[in-house]
Design goal:
Chain lengths: ~350, ~350, ~350, ~350
């Protein structure tokens, strides 16, 4: 960590600062230039409060050199982490496709979709039982009842399941869920992160809609610092000024994350754009940038024939995406378990 | 609500859509142009799922005309809401200053600051017991012990207190807190919003760092839809591309909110910029745009003489801000209770 | 165009507004609801000043239904535009790779790179003679002398060239340039757009770093409204809050643009991220989303051995990208001219 | 400047880098830690190409310590610059209000407004002759004819004038313009910046809609590096995700700029929000944060009675803003020339 001191700063304050740094068990390397003095902090700086340092009157700038995350850091764990979900492996050369309905509505609907996506190549079933909705007047999901339907669909098809948790109070109810999803809006719900960190169960951690890659890895670090290392990251678009898409899918994040962390990372092209007709091109792009998998919304409820063209694909459209993905996987040295 | 249909759309799909709309109890006004057909939805559209409509294959665009919030909407409640906190009034012509330390550290520290800010003009004491920190390795606050210290400072000084809740599991522990704060990162923690909505106690709802004004009002609506109308909104800066400030304080939001909602709104100039030397100019600006109050960080702990110039002001600097604010208040027809 | 009128508006003002609309040659369809009145404007609304309408006291919201661009609009020109650059075709089923150095430095450098990228599969040579630099103290490019070097490299290799123009005053000097590039910072330099619109020569129009897709198409419309329809759009990343990449490449924009416009669109993965190691994955992703080509920075100057790992690839790395792209093109029904 | 080297980097590459740095006339201070090596560059680093450094394979991060701007830097010019426009002074304790119509339409209109705003307290007249419009079909301004009208209004009222230049080709035509405005879209039109830098005439430099404070100062530096130091900066809002306002006015930028530069800075509250009813609160806020002046749109053309409530104020509304500003100025130790 590098601290730049403003010129003409009071030597007493500088002295006080270096004493404080040394009390944290760090070494101070001073280097005085004409216009400014620079202090290099050497040692384990992950516990230094960078905001505090930045706010000091005598400090011009603080630069972190070591990343603030450790457990999630590829520097310290060079090999890819493989997250194993009942034999379905995320990471390394594996490529997985998670699919299912946005919201769980009826048993018939979910089992129908589960069978269809399994036949088309999905290895994990998704489905929303608890739905984070901007409006209190919008459908909030079936809740615990939805969870039961999802588990039944899992038993019928043999597909492991992933579904979103919105509060610590449901931790027990999620005991049989194979992968617990932390949604974008809860990426910095730190109590929830700590709670799932205490589990020994795969966590799908979505990126917050306005969170940096570093903050995202720090949220993974929250979970890992409690002992749970089975984390799958999921890019789902960030908020920008562009109104034509609901969010802007940040595909550059995937190769960058591959450098910075050993955790597997998948892409959700359905939520990012909010437009089903973008799902196929964005899926192929996700394979191209090196993602470890996809999470795609699929529906087949005849009640919703209305929704043709929604964020969700029909099973035949989903099968078409899987086929195209399969052709592409060898180019990136990935393989889909079959 | 206006739905624009793509040209050359299948009449059968249009017919299915209008039937679906009518089933929601709404009227459909069709208007066919050369390039597109427009359907006007008349009636209570707050329950229409706009995302669903937008995703239909035949739909080009959907425009909401009515705001999606009702309880928070000034149209339906033209008069300012006054939130009364043990006699300290937020809203209308009242102007309040909340002050206190960022983190609660010791009883001596908090009581010292509480006395100082009370003397300088603060009417509510703030202090963080539970701290949302990006890093799991950063100080997370004293928790329940911090809460006890804060309550003691309240008893000693008579100042009501405000502090942040980070999880529903602490609802009972916050029983004696006068104003419960929902922080920026939890603005869309919907289970937490519903939980505080069930209380009959003032809630300070901070704007999420990447949330629109409409989403913010929808979060207020979550609380109000559970029956709790005592909400104070707090602007604290939004995330932009500008790196010189931690966040960009969106002061235009205040006069806009004054049109859209009847709820009181205050400004937190300390968190927005992360720089104590911006607190005074941004406080005056907040008065200028018509805010109902300020929330300012103040410290006096000699242990932290180190922190001169931090996001927190010293008590004498805080007193200077209050004096400047007082001179300005008559210009905007506001008055600080004394 | 739909204009929503505030409730309780003065009927005299509404009457004045409808008269004004009719004077523009448009029809007014009024539809009165309980909470608001809606006016539908029918006819050619592209000349209506939407900002003016929005700013009226009685107006709550204005929604455009027709896109504000015509010449660039696929609705009116369903077939793909093919831009032909000396036989090198952009658009349709064609896929082209533009390559070359960031800055033109010496004849030897440029000819060396030109030969290398041609051998590897590039069909157009790029090179910066005039460089838009944030700092006046940074290298501004060789200017006209650089242009001469680039033209010489074109003669030697037979590759057509593309280079950036920064001011109308150089229009004549660019007479022999095959494709004139408008850079991101000049995307809304309207005088420059009009000037190149008067030419009959292909224009490469980069997206501004904070411009929406619609604004970008409006800039294309500026050029087309002067009679020049040979436009190649180039996505190069937008400005977001994420600091790890220089810009966020918006790949969702490509399939969206394919719906909205008939113009060809390519991607510049070198500038977007600023990191050469992201060029290959982002190139594959660009093919996946359906781009019509790539623009890639390549260097080979031994003077810059220093720059290993920069935004520019070495020729061997570039050849490796082309090979991977070639394997992928059949999946998206594209072919690279050979 | 601090360069952090990746661990396990090739010593030959490090050696090559340090030799290159020394060739630039800089000293290299090496400091080796366990996880990384840090090189401190000492000397005049303003000519170091930071993008080049960042792109090196062995480089993890580069941190600038010295600002990249010199002429605009308060460190080297501690005293406020006072820009004198025919006796109207910008900067120091002076406060000026620029007012006038958005677009120049007729002589009668402009002279009418000029007289009205002068009477109300404006010291400079603004008016758009060349209008940067997103659409080629929107009114582009009267051009040179508009300039003549503006000059006539200046002669009649004695008010100096400011108007926007959109291309270098009009430099001569702007010879009699008192302050030449560079608009937001041209903030990084570097040829135009250099051209106005060669003049000896005040330049009003607006912030680009997605430009950082540092980039803005670098654009000022472009002008100053050509010898023209008479620059007035103008904040007019930045692009964010918030749709309720056209742009988000970044008022924190003003006190920050006051630290970083000696140049005067004013605020344009009319363009930022696009809503006339926000002009008054944002004007008061601008005074509160320490701005040196305001630029406000005023209209009075009866042809535009239609536009009530637009971005422009009526003269009586403008007079009301000036009165409120006047009451506030003593609080910030500013005075409006009368």
């Amino acid at each position: 960590m590098i601290v730049t001191i403003k010129r003409n700063s009071n030597p007493v304050q500088i002295e006080r600062l270096t004493r404080w740094i040394k009390n944290l068990g760090l070494e101070c390397h001073m280097s005085e230039g004409e216009k400014s003095t620079v202090i290099g902090l050497v040692g384990d700086t992950s516990k230094v409060d960078i905001d505090l340092l930045r706010s000091l009157e005598i400090v011009e700038a603080v630069t972190r050199i070591q990343e603030p995350y450790k457990n999630a850091n590829r520097k310290f764990h060079p090999d890819d982490t493989i997250v194993d979900v009942k034999g379905v492996k995320f990471g390394g050369s594996h490529f997985q496709i998670i699919a299912g309905p946005c919201s769980i509505e009826t048993e018939k609907q979910v089992i129908g979709i589960a069978e269809a996506v399994k036949a088309a190549g999905a290895s994990v079933l998704r489905g929303g039982a608890f739905k984070p909705r901007t409006s209190p007047y919008a459908f909030q999901g079936l809740g615990l009842k939805g969870l039961e339907i999802l588990k039944k669909a899992s038993r019928e098809t043999g597909l492991p399941i992933v579904t979103e948790i919105m509060s610590e109070k449901y931790i027990d109810a999620f005991a049989d869920v194979d992968i617990i999803q932390i949604g974008a809006r809860n990426m910095q719900n730190f109590d929830l992160l700590k709670a799932v960190g205490k589990l020994r169960k795969p966590i799908l951690l979505k990126r917050g809609l306005a969170n940096t890659i570093e903050e995202w890895l720090m949220s993974a670090e929250y979970i890992m610092s409690e002992g749970n290392n089975e984390i799958i990251l999921c890019e789902r678009g960030i908020r920008t000024f562009e109104p034509y898409t609901r969010n802007t899918l940040d595909l550059s994040a995937i190769p960058l994350l591959k450098e910075k962390t050993h955790l597997p990372i998948i892409v959700d092209p359905s939520h990012a754009s909010g437009l089903s007709r973008l799902v196929k091109p964005l899926s192929l792009a996700s394979v191209g940038v090196g993602a470890d998998g996809l999470m795609i919304e699929v529906h087949n409820d005849p009640q919703h024939a209305l929704c043709d063209g929604a964020q969700s694909l029909r099973p035949d459209q989903f099968a078409d995406v899987v086929k195209a993905v399969d052709v592409m996987l060898p180019l990136v040295n990935k393989e889909r378990d079959k």
